[in-house]
């Protein structure tokens, strides 16, 4: 007791378990380098990995301009390895040892006790490590140099022999047939070192792409180190009641198990199901049912189940489609499995099924031929995907099997918005994998009389509204001028004859009502996958309510300022992508969820000291309008401001510039003679996000 009083608890920290990078996170231990050099400064030329062996090879550039680099030794090593002639197979094409290879070895055989931790805002997020690899320099180039030396010696020794002596005499060959291998001999051969080395050499290298610390892709991957549900479903292992902890420490004695009747392995009774943790119950139910409304899921879990806990768990094993929960693809197709029909690996099946789910977020109907044409999967696999979540209709296609769940969307707008962010990320991956065209991204138009709700994108709604405004602009202008004249005449009559004021009862309005028939046929109770009642508190036309505009502006300005301090030049498209990632990391109910329009985001960029760079892109460019809008931080307060401003002026005149032109312009404007390495450094620092 005395020790406890002397050592009080200062702070309690919530611990979350992140599973997004489970079995994917490795810890690399690099050799010791000088304190003045960080690995972010090192240029990674190439990287490759053998996943089964957990073996990695990294090729890094050596700074040959460093005063500590011995140029004569570098030239000698390159000469010994490659000889005097250089070709595509040469290790050092520059005739100088300008790179070094690092090979990995496992630092620990059992890494289940280790995890990567990230501390943020009073929360500790843990991600289990899949491997710890120590990188050491590889000296295989010395073996190559020895082989070259032996070849030269052999050529010198055999140079005096004549052509007749070089020819081998014809020899008799005896053919022997090997005896059948016994089981014992086969086991010895399989366990031999030579066989294991051969098996390891047969595994193909998987080439990797290296992204720097400040790259946007690195920032995107670092978000996965945080618990995606913020202590929701994936952290149920860390949330146990005292009785559950006692049950884990002292499990009940297993008796009378032999007396129980044996059930099939794929059958689980509801009584047995309710003995499992809540997360396992939901996973088993979703895996068997595949598509379920939230109300039905609560009913199956029994009375007294906390709906908030169920919401936490279901988001880890299912995705929201038209207000209903559909089981995730990786739950149905675990890693290292394959299709029973075609043998396609699980990763390809998950991508194809995600495409079908995404199509149902865009439309009530999906055509089987279109899915097969995009995914390139066999008809049986595509049919399985569709049968999981839809029903076939003759001469129409496949319709999503459940109606749109309006009640769930109304009650849980924060969950709906979070799921929309997840679907945006899935859509971006599908576009890259399948090279989706615009016809695949936009929902097909249907007749206005259709009884099924359609999905209308925000851009389509804006375009339709603009067309309607242009159509009615002339008529509205005439009516406005007429009303203005009537108001002036009424004001003058009121001033001249105030005692004779009379109130004439007339209809409330003689204006024609706004024609919304074009939108009504498309909306049909469902706009952008959300019920209209859900958006009653959303901002209108990008304008926020007066009570929270200051807070939202401060939050938005802080995000824009921090983003441009890391990446000095960004397109509007990239900025919106980073903003969506930022929103996904925020807790539900944050002020930024009130809605930020593109205009507000662009205005805030200009308010934080950034400028729009009017890059003269060619007219035939395939880039989107958001990709053509380029913004840059004009003054960052560092030593590169002067160089950066010169570069921005250059690119405002031409979208493509040669390196020597940039070097000459920088030298003229800044009054310094910059070499090629210094120009590369300036370009990398100034345009790190586009480099």
From TrEMBL:
GO terms for biological process: tRNA transcription by RNA polymerase III. Residues 444-689 form the DNA-directed RNA polymerase III subunit RPC5 C-terminal domain. Residues 146-155 have a biased composition (Basic and acidic residues). It comes from the Eukaryota. It holds the Pfam family RPC5_C. One of its GO terms (cellular component) is RNA polymerase III complex. Residues 146-169 are annotated as: Disordered. This is RPC5 polymerase. It comes from Polioptila caerulea. The gene is Polr3e.
């Amino acid at each position: 007791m005395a020790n406890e009083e002397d050592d009080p608890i200062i702070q309690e920290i919530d611990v979350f378990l992140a599973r997004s990078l489970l079995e994917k996170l490795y810890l690399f231990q690099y050799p010791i380098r000088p304190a003045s050099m960080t690995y972010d400064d090192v240029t990674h030329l190439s990287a490759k990995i053998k996943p089964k062996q957990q073996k990695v090879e990294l090729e890094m550039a050596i700074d040959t301009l460093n005063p500590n680099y011995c140029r004569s030794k570098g030239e000698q090593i390159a000469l010994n390895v490659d000889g005097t002639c250089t070709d595509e197979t040469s290790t050092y094409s520059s005739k100088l040892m300008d790179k070094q290879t690092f090979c990995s070895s496992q630092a620990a055989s059992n890494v289940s006790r280790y995890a990567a931790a990230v501390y943020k805002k009073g929360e500790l997020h843990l991600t289990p490590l899949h491997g710890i690899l120590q990188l050491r320099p590889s000296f295989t180039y010395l073996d190559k140099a020895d082989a070259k030396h032996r070849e030269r010696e052999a050529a010198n020794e055999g140079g005096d022999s004549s052509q007749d002596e070089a020819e081998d005499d014809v020899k008799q060959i005896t053919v022997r047939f090997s005896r059948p291998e016994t089981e014992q001999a086969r086991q010895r051969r399989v366990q031999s070192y030579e066989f294991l080395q051969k098996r390891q050499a047969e595994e193909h290298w998987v080439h990797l792409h290296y992204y720097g610390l400040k790259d946007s892709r690195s920032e995107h991957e670092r978000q996965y180190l945080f618990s995606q549900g913020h202590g929701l479903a994936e952290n149920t292992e860390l949330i146990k009641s005292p009785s559950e902890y006692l049950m884990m420490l002292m499990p009940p004695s297993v008796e009378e198990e032999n007396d129980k009747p044996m059930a099939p392995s794929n059958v689980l009774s509801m009584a047995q199901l309710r003995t499992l943790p809540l997360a396992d119950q939901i996973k088993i139910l979703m895996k068997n049912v595949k598509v379920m409304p939230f109300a039905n899921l609560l009913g199956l879990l029994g009375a007294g189940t906390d709906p908030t806990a169920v919401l936490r768990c279901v988001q880890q094993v299912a995705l929201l489609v038209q207000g209903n929960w559909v089981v995730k693809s990786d739950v149905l197709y675990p890693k290292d499995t394959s299709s029973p029909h075609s043998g396609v690996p699980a990763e390809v099946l998950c991508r194809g099924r995600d495409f079908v789910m995404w199509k149902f977020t865009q439309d009530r109907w999906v055509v089987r031929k279109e899915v097969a044409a995009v995914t390139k999967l066999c008809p049986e696999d595509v049919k399985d995907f569709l049968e999981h979540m839809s029903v076939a209709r003759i001469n129409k296609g496949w319709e999503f099997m459940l109606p749109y769940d309006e009640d769930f969307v109304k009650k849980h707008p924060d969950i709906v918005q979070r799921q929309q962010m997840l679907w945006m990320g899935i859509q971006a991956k599908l576009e890259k994998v399948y090279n989706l065209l615009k016809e695949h991204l936009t929902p097909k138009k249907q007749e206005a009389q259709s009884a099924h709700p359609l999905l209308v994108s925000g851009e389509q709604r804006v375009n339709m509204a603009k067309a309607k405004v242009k159509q009615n602009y002339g008529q509205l202008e005439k009516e406005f001028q007429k009303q203005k004249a009537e108001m002036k005449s009424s004001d003058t009559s009121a001033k001249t004859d105030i005692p004779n004021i009379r109130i004439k009862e007339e209809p409330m309005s003689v204006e024609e009502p706004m024609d919304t028939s074009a939108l009504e046929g498309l909306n049909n109770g469902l706009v952008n996958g959300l019920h209209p009642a859900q958006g009653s508190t959303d901002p209108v036309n990008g304008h926020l309510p007066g009570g929270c505009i200051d807070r939202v502006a401060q939050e938005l300005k802080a995000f824009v300022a921090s983003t441009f301090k890391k990446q000095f030049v960004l397109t509007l498209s990239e900025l919106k992508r980073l903003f969506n990632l930022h929103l996904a990391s925020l807790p539900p109910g944050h002020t930024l969820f009130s809605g930020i329009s593109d205009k507000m985001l662009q205005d805030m960029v200009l308010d934080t000291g950034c400028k729009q760079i009017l890059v003269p892109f060619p007219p035939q460019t395939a880039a989107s309008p958001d990709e053509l809008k380029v913004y840059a931080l004009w003054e960052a307060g560092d030593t590169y401001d002067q160089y950066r401003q010169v570069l921005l002026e250059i690119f405002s005149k031409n979208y493509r510039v040669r390196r020597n032109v940039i070097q000459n312009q920088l030298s003229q404007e800044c009054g310094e003679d910059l070499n090629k390495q210094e120009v590369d450094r300036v370009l990398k620092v100034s345009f790190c996000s586009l480099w």
